[in-house]
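Inverse folding, one chain.
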């Protein structure tokens, strides 16, 4: 049977109906793959449908009712995506959750969403749920995919995925029309998924997205970038994140392309090299980590290779983006770039698994212009997009030939944007969410009566009609001399350095800008080994004067860049310290999506901030830390504070000594 065309697929308004269509028209095409014990396992669209129906039958046999909530917890696994589909087949609502959340963090979402069923990956997730089960009166059933370590568990309502599928198959034999009838009841305005926000300023909020939200936005992205059924994508981002849900679930079902699940979080980059994806989505942190790995390898290479890389990268940064955008480049420069493609750019892309990559995306937060330019220089068609969970991810994106490092593009098809007088970005589209679950007050604050979402981001439309995001509106402040202070913009510039993993800038209401820095342990550790510098731990390495000098040089580089920006030249960093530990979601310093909890950090480390502004050369710290197993401990250290030179054009008022 021939594969149905785009027009036919657009007629289906729920994902179970789309899946049935794909299984009927192109059932033998590969839908999803997973690497397990080094071997790739595949499911066709027909097998996807059979598996999801069987699991749905297992849920129904356990008493699943239309409207019930199903928690989905674990790494990206086909069985968990089948769990989402099974819940939707029965008119339920899947609630994907961050797999690295500790048990206490899960309680609020599980209780707030009134979750009755949970489909989880393994013993780790089961143990978390069992630890807090007494606090969750609604949680009746826990279905686990990997049974290692769980064979002797006998808690009520606990069953293996295989057992649930078996029971579902038997259920269907007795009621052969039940699943089809439930699928038929689904409508586009029904809630398809509930995704909880990361909670940077308070408790997470449950964003209710309808089928119409996700399907219409999926088709908008497909149309914008001309995605085909031959695409190969990698599903490795948290399933609780809207980006993964849209690309690995929504668009895959709308367009019928193949989704690949890596073996583990630790093998993602290795598996990417095997997959050779045509589309790749990653937040800035992943792009930064990949670049750090590249730079570390180059530093470890021989003198000739380092010189060759340096020469051709300078050429690439100058003309690579121009060539990619189809602009005119001199014949000699183009010939040299061709040589560089053979000697440097091509082998590098191939080593990273990017040789077949047609398009790449970055989103979630602003990416450093230098990082963005690096990838486009070597021929990776990376483009920025801007969105939010409440708008089903896609609001603004970059079109081929109109890609700029300092802007995020123009509205996707069907999207409207406007800028309020205070600089806040508002948007309206078919992807606008239905509301926050059981939180009408927050819904009213975010969603206007005429359907506009208040993004909370400050931005502007430039002369080319492109949207530029400056920072979170609540975070943009002013120095005492009236100059604008945009902390995220500064932090992203700092993180271009392979030696800086995270940074937090301060300056609002002060005379100058200062910063906390987290070093990248792998990159700085590698550098220390080459220099013969011994260390015992992160804290020990971070305290070395040589490391302060290393980081200080990169901060001065950032200052030189800021000095060229008239609006931000006064925001150059004047003092900094290197934190004694990495900022960690388990310590509430970062969200699960790795966003800085700025207010929490300002309160927790207020003594360190005060020391930065009172001229101290060092400050003592005794901080509590949370380990992966939930235990707590403390770290005592003396942190050095260093001054940094500023570049030309900086107009600092009063220096850094004033409080």
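Residues assigned per position:
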């Amino acid at each position: 049977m021939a594969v149905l065309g785009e027009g036919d697929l657009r007629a289906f308004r729920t994902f179970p109906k789309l899946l049935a269509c794909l299984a009927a028209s192109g059932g033998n095409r590969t839908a999803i793959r997973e690497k397990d014990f080094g071997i790739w396992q595949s499911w066709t669209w027909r097998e996807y449908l059979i598996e999801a129906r069987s699991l749905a039958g297992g849920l129904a046999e356990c008493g699943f009712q239309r409207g019930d909530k199903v928690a989905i917890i674990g790494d990206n696994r086909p069985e968990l995506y089948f769990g989402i589909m099974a819940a939707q087949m029965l008119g339920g609502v899947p609630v994907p959750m961050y797999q690295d959340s500790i048990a206490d963090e899960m309680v609020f979402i599980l209780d707030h969403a009134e979750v009755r069923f949970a489909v989880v990956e393994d013993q780790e997730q089961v143990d978390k749920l069992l630890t807090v089960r007494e606090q969750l009166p609604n949680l009746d059933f826990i279905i686990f995919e990997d049974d290692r370590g769980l064979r002797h568990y006998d808690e009520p309502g606990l069953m293996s995925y295989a057992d649930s599928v078996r029971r579902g198959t038997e259920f269907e034999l007795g009621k052969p029309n039940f699943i089809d009838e439930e699928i038929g009841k689904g409508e586009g305005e029904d809630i398809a998924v509930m995704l909880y926000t990361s909670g940077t300023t308070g408790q997470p909020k449950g964003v209710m997205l309808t089928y119409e939200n996700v399907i219409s936005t999926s088709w908008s992205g497909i149309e914008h970038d001309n995605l085909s059924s031959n695409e190969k994508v990698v599903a490795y981002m948290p399933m609780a994140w809207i980006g993964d849900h849209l690309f690995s679930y929504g668009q895959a079902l709308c367009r019928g392309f193949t989704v690949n699940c890596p073996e583990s979080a630790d093998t993602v980059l290795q598996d990417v090299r095997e997959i050779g994806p045509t589309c790749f989505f990653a937040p800035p942190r992943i792009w930064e980590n990949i670049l750090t790995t590249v730079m570390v390898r180059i530093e470890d290479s021989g003198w000739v290779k380092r010189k060759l890389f340096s020469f051709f990268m300078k050429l690439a940064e100058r003309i690579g983006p121009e060539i990619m955008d189809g602009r005119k480049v001199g014949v000699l420069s183009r010939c040299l770039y061709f040589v560089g493609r053979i000697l440097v750019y091509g082998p590098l892309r191939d080593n990273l698994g990017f040789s077949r990559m047609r398009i790449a995306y970055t989103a979630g937060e602003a990416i450093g212009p230098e990082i963005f330019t690096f990838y486009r220089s070597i021929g990776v068609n990376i483009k920025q997009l801007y969105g939010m969970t409440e708008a089903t991810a896609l609001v603004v994106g970059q079109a081929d030939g109109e890609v700029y490092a300092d802007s995020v593009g123009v509205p996707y098809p069907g999207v409207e944007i406007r800028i309020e007088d205070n600089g806040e970005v508002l948007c309206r589209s078919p992807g606008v969410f239905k509301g926050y679950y059981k939180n009408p007050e927050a819904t009213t604050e975010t969603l206007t009566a005429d359907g506009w979402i208040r993004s909370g981001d400050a931005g502007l439309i430039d002369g080319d009609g492109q949207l530029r995001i400056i920072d979170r509106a609540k975070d943009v402040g002013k120095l005492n001399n009236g100059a604008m202070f945009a902390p995220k913009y500064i932090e992203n510039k700092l993180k271009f350095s392979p030696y800086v993993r995270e940074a937090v800038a301060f300056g609002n209401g002060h005379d100058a800008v200062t910063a906390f820095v987290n070093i990248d342990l792998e990159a700085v550790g590698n550098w220390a080994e080459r220099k013969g510098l011994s260390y015992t731990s992160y804290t020990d390495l971070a305290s070395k004067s040589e490391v302060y000098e290393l980081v200080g040089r990169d901060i001065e580089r950032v200052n030189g860049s800021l000095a060229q920006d008239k609006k931000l030249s006064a925001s150059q960093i004047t003092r900094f310290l290197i934190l004694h530990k990495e900022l960690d979601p388990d310590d509430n310093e970062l969200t699960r999506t790795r966003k800085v909890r700025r207010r929490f950090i300002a309160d927790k480390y207020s003594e360190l901030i005060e020391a930065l502004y009172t001229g101290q050369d060092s400050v003592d710290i005794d901080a509590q830390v949370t380990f992966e197993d939930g235990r707590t401990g403390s770290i005592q250290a003396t942190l050095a504070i260093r001054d940094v030179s500023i570049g030309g054009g900086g107009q600092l008022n009063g220096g850094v000594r004033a409080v």
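The chain has 22 helices and 28 strands. Residues 303-324 form the longest helix (22 residues).
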